[in-house]
User: Fold TetR/AcrR family transcriptional regulator from Streptomyces ardesiacus.
Amino acid sequence: MPQEAPAPSARREVLLEAAYQYALTHGLADLSLRPLAGAIGSSPRVLLFLFESKDGLLRALLARARADQLALLERAGRPDRPAGLAEAVERVWTWLAAKEHRPLLRLWAEAYARSLGRPEGVWAGFARATVDDWLGVLAGFQPPSERDGGEGLTRRTLALAVLRGALLDLLATDDEARLTAAVARQLDLLRDGDGDRDGDGDGDG
Assistant:
């Protein structure tokens, strides 16, 4: 009689968190169950039982990484009032540039690239989902009159392109000063745009 998949358990959650911390250091590209299990005090057999397969473990790790990144991005964003995309880029870039976030962001970049190259299977949809996550955070900074129009989507897409491009460069070079200066230049352009929209509204600039 086939063995039923186990229900979520405290042990599974403990091992998932330990495996996630391991992945932040070692990445996902060459993840092997035996060294992973040894590092987190488990065994390949236990991991396969709890996660059903290596792919099941990878899916759980990707979900954990995405949830972690989104929670931190939302903490960096979500203003009390729509503050404009310049404020969004400034806040999010400050978070992205912090050295303590590099392990998570390197893991994100690895998963993003693998999702592009492997559109099916365990990596399916990861890259697209993170684009939607980031655009959602940026949308929270836009006033409804801008956010709900086509121009609003174009402006936050541009903001995302700047942030993501600068992030990938930062992960490759660690040249925070150069990239912060480049992001600051883009902030000036965004502030000009936000100021134009304020001028069309209540005059607050």
Summary: The chain has two domains: 1-52, 68-200.
